[in-house]
Specification:
102 residues; mainly alpha
Length: 102
């Protein structure tokens, strides 16, 4: 069994309630639009940061590759110098580092 209660409300009060509902609805819609825009700004900023990080990583990878190549060249140079010197050790002029140069 269902009981329905009717409340007598003056028309002007009913109109005010409807206005309040509409204000709340408009505010809710505006709030959702603002939050959507804010989310878009956040994601755009996040993608900008990711692009910066990717470019920095690419620069770092290039630098690491250049450094690795330089190390390989230096190692080869050291090996070539060692072969040319035939393993002889030099101690300075005339075998002593204290001999003055004339």
């Amino acid at each position: 069994m269902q009981i329905t209660i009717a409340i007598a409300v003056p028309y002007h009060q009913y109109r005010e309630w409807k206005r309040e509902e509409n204000k709340n609805a408009v505010y809710t819609v505006q709030k959702s639009i603002d939050s959507t825009k804010q989310k878009q700004r956040k994601t755009e900023g996040m993608y900008d940061i990711l692009d910066i990080i990717k470019s920095e990583n690419a620069d770092d990878k290039k630098q690491i590759a250049d450094d690795t190549k330089q190390i390989a060249d230096d190692t080869k140079q050291i090996e070539d110098d060692t072969k040319q010197n035939c393993g002889m050790k030099t101690y300075g002029i005339c075998g002593s580092p204290r001999v003055p140069i004339l």
